[in-house]
Amino acid sequence: MNTDTISIVGLGKLGLCLAAIYAYKGKTVIGVDLLPNMIDNINLGRSPIVEPDLAGMISKVGGKKLLATLEHNRAIAESDITIVITATPSMPDGSFSNDHVEDALTKLSLSLKNSTKPYHLFVISSTVIPGSIEGSFIPLIERHSGRKLSQGFGICYDPDFVALGSVIKDFMNPEVVIIGESSSKDGKLLEILHVSICDNSPQICHMSLSSAEIAKVSLNAYITLKISFANLIGNICDKIQGANPDDITGAIGLDKRISPYYFKAGLSYGGTCFPRDTWALNAVLKRHNIPLALMQACQAINAYQDKSLIDKVINLVKQVNAKTIGILGLAFKPGTPVVTESPAIKLIKALHKEDLQIVAYDPLAQENTYAVFEDRIDYAGSIAECLSRSSLNILTIPSKEMAKDIYKYQGTALLLDCWRILNKDTLPKNIKCFHFFQG
Ligand SMILES: NC(=O)c1ccc[n+]([C@@H]2O[C@H](COP(=O)([O-])OP(=O)(O)OC[C@H]3O[C@@H](n4cnc5c(N)ncnc54)[C@H](O)[C@@H]3O)[C@@H](O)[C@H]2O)c1
What is 301-435's CATH number? Predict the structure, then answer.
């Protein structure tokens, strides 16, 4: 098998980063997508996706080691290994749609049918509902390629545990690589390929295709449980005078059985993965008549965090008779343009119902926020402009850059810091700051 060239189908937020890394590390990468504009930009060395370090990489490899194309048959003709990383959108019941993956696999399999090459390895990287590969993808490939599993093709599952805002760093420094495999030969080949892009030495765990599918959805769902538990502690602290959630999570997080990561009370979890992987696990539980209580409790706590933020802000609005509210942070976390399930977006919707004016600051997420609200909110060009135009400001993300600018601000301002990253004692005297959970 030739491993000097690989193909990647789906050049979105994850796929393009993965393609850029493989190309940057020396592979020739055939990148396939459906969007002509995206293909043209990549081949001209311009990144259509915003992620730290991606633009620099694409400028070096785009059109050279990374060759973007609209043609799926080039993936089959020019490589022996194809990674499929198309979107798997959530369905109303919480499960994922496999339509894009199946469309890609159908095109690839039809092309494989006409190929004389003896073997092709398909690597599924999209997040899928457990059971998809054995139940749908293998029969689909067999049907369209006219080949049998392990004879004319192999299949592996290589789920991604990366976070938007640090996709490249996370891809190159994974703590664990999970490999679901249809045969140990294919799994070993994927291990060599995957490890070739790692700057560290991650643990490699081989398992069945179905186990790897369950592991992928379970990891994110477990983290949402942990975040929700920290938020539960925050909510208790809110009701008991003198209690500080950071002292508590900081101390019990030192116990190895808990650990400090993703263990800070704050706003609801959002983004493109946590909420939907939790819903997906619920859909799997429901499908198999397994009690839903644990994940439902997690979702209820998350919804409570949104309500609690809205109640607190409206309370403050009434106290100070605020008319214009500044929202510092629109994305669901710092360093990303993604506003999906962002607490800030849900807050703005609630404040609009109270007829309040909104001035917002988060340059990275401004375009995506505009797609939601258009001109119904104002966009500030700086933290100082946002603070000066608003009688109450809400810092919704733990952004160090934003905190630095707030410390430099000379005017008067009133601020709710939802992640307690500002030290009330060292802030300029003209800035009055409340902390979420501690008044
Ligand atoms: N975004 C995340 O944080 C994250 C993290 C871990 C896993 N995942 C999973 O990775 C997968 C990809 O996510 P993403 O955020 O990169 O999606 P995305 O929507 O940003 O990108 C998907 C890309 O696939 C392309 N595409 C769709 N159908 C295609 C086809 N038939 N052939 C070729 N290209 C096709 C689209 O044009 C698009 O460019 C999803 O299953 C997602 O759940 C995402």
Answer: 3.40.50.720
